[in-house]
Amino acid sequence: MFLPKYPVNPTPPPAHTHTPADPMPVRHSLPPLALDRHTVVALVVGGVVLTALLAAVAVTAISVAIAAVVLRSMLRDHRR
What we know:
Elements: H1 37-79
């Protein structure tokens, strides 16, 4: 009564079976990267400089925002 009804003709098997044409090509490894002391120092100094510039921009943005709020409140009090 509650059993599923299956079709009389099941679907035929696929006509084409997939076969890989060529195996995966061999990947060559990258040449070794020579990291000497000067390169590491340059990367660290560059990171420090970029971080300092980002901090300076953030401090400037915060100070400009505070100055804008102060000026706005001063002008609002002046108009009254």
